[in-house]
Amino acid sequence: MRGMPEPQVMTVTGPMPVSALGVVDAHDHLFLRTPALPGDEFDDVERSTAEAADGRASGIGTIVDMTPIGLGRRPNLLRAVSEATGIPIIGATGYHRDAHYPRGHWVYDASVDELAERVVSDLEIGMHPADWTDPEAAPDAARAGAIKAGASYHHASDPERRRLEACAIGSLRCGVPILVHTEIGTFGHEIVDLLTGFGVAPARIILAHLDRNPDAELHAEIAERGVSLEYDTMGRTKYRPDSDLLDLIERMVGNGHGERLLFGQDIGRRSMLRAYGGGPGLRYLMGTFVPRVRRRIGDDATDAVLVANPARVFAIEAPA
Ligand SMILES: [Zn+2]
């Protein structure tokens, strides 16, 4: 539209027009530490920089780091990686599911208002460098540009529901999308019911890991509600071969749901990063998987998933 300013995303180094995003890895991690994955933490800035550079060389244009509050999020190091590699990084605020917070963590006792206030502070002022374990610490210069939330296997606990409500408040206040972790692809409709009940538009909701349960009929129902589905199990050979995921993608695109798909890699373990001595690493998406996607669904549909869809979903909307 003539005269309309181009939509922007918020990266850790500031706002950026969506046309500069390129290929978006819509869910990944450059720094992570959680009691749910002991021994698999990663927080070495040099190695994470090397991994991000490798991802960029493979063709990734922008990384969305979906590490939320309390999981070893490192806003200053995200800025350092972005500055060293030139790769734009969108950081996240929000909260994961219960399994990632030890008993007694403040996220269990905080009110919805306090949970929401901290999300909004990360989005409007800058990400808290210590996730409020040291409330005196000054906010980092990097603002979050997306919200992460989480539910459990076929249910959401009461604390998870409070955190989903806080994330909804943050999304409505700041115009950014919410990406929700689904456990093995379950509870998708119910998460959408909860968030839309809090006033969030379906177009602002992304469900992650739905491909852990590659049920094309269920996915079509969710896509028809206007919600984005983020597939991120390419290269998870321990779950199933990539050919199964390619079948799912081909079916979704063939049924007209291509505009609801996003790809991420969700590399949440040290042992999956090449720079830390593991694999498959950040190069897997563009180096190994996407050439196979292009052969299945063609270049136009592939580029929509990689470029156009994330540009629409991660664009910051003016608050209602
Ligand atoms: Zn993740």
Helix-residue proportion: 25-40%
- Global structural class: alpha/beta
Q: Biggest β-sheet: count, sense, barrel?
A: 6 strands, parallel
What oligomeric state best describes the polypeptide chains here? Answer: single chain
- CA radius of gyration is 18 Å
Instruction: Give the averaged pLDDT, no decimals.
Output: 96
Report the uncertain regions: none
| Major beta sheet, strand line-up | 6-7-8-9-10-11
- Helical segment count: 9
Shape descriptor reads globular
First-to-last CA distance: 20 Å
Q: Percent of residues in beta strands? A: 5-15%
Q: Which hetero ligands occur in this complex?
A: zinc ion
The SSE order reads EEEHEHEEHHEHEHEHEHEH
- The tally of beta strands, per DSSP, is 11
Q: Could you characterize the architecture of this molecule?
A:
This protein is of the alpha/beta class. Helices cover 38% and strands 13% of the residues. It has 9 helices and 11 strands. The strands form 3 sheets. It has a 6-stranded parallel β-sheet. A 3-stranded parallel β-sheet has the order 3-4-5. A two-stranded antiparallel sheet has the order 1-2. Strand 8, helix 6 and strand 9 form a beta-alpha-beta unit. The radius of gyration is 18 Å and the shape is globular. The two termini are 20 Å apart. The structure holds zinc ion. The site of zinc ion has 5 residues, from loops.
